[in-house]
Amino acid sequence: MDVEEQGGVTLDVEQRAKKSPRAFCAPVRIPGEVYLVIAPVGGWDDYSALFHEGGHTEHFANVDPALPFEFRYLGDNSITEAYAFLVQHLVEDPEWLSRRLGIADASALVSHARAQRLVYLRRYGAKLAYELELHSGDGARSALADRYAQLLGDALRIQWPREMFLADVDPGFYCACYLRAWALETHLRSYLEEQFGPAWFESGEAGAVLRGLWQEGQRASPEELLGQLTGQNLDFRVLLEELS
């Protein structure tokens, strides 16, 4: 992928007042006008944020412009999040870290990234459980605040503040999109490694596979995409196996 050759992609990395400290991808016109916005602060987190949003950016920048609006802009966001996690995972991949950054022993970084991913998985699992209760409409507001703190605190093994019980809720059960995306990404990465080896990210053929998937926007569900690509079913046990 040569970003400089992608006329529709703009990297916004400049420092300016009131710029969002959180990196994001803004697909204004898919695929012709896509912005990757990041405010670098230094360190591994910058790489992680850049590559995650880079996954979104490459996905949207490679969508077939002839697709209907619904498949270019809408659909199941588990798909684009899976591509974002796939690219983001490179910065915790010992093979990529060795070949691209010259890190001979990445064990400490890989362990840190694994722990971070486990925290996110536990947090979003608890968020889904809480949001299912929240949207059921049962219970007083004060009880929901306590339930939020309990579920998140139990999952993360820390005392979790109750005050965010309404603010820490994304529209449309997006927490479920993240969980499904983590599972889909693990399947996709395993497929690429099996087909093209541990350095799949250097393979032009692997790039062609990804561009072919990206062209479809979010036309397919994660189950449909995985079934067509590998014949497998979306299985959350792949996450447990990788983290065990």
Describe this structure in words.
A 3-stranded mixed β-sheet has the order 1-3-2, covered by helices on one side. It is globular, with a radius of gyration of 19 Å. Helix 1 (44-61) packs across helix 3 and helix 3 packs across helix 7 (174-196). The mean pLDDT is 94. It is 57% helix and 6% strand. The protein has helices at 44-61, 69-73, 78-88, 94-101, 107-136, 141-156, 174-196, 204-214, 222-230, 237-243, and strands at residues 9-12, 24-29, 33-37. A hairpin with a 3-residue loop joins strand 2 (24-29) and strand 3. The protein is mainly alpha-helical and 244 residues long. The chain has a single domain, classed as Neurolysin, domain 3 (Orthogonal Bundle).
Task: Indicate the topology.
Layout (H helix, E strand, L loop, with lengths): L8 E4 L11 E6 L3 E5 L6 H18 L7 H5 L4 H11 L5 H8 L5 H30 L4 H16 L17 H23 L7 H11 L7 H9 L6 H7 L1
Parallel strand pairs: 1-3
Antiparallel strand pairs: 2-3
Main β sheet profile: 3 strands, mixed
Query: At the first level of CATH, what is the class?
Result: Mainly Alpha
Span of the ends, CA to CA: 33 Å
- Number of E-state strands: 3
User: Rg, please?
Assistant: 19 Å
Percent in strands:
5-15%
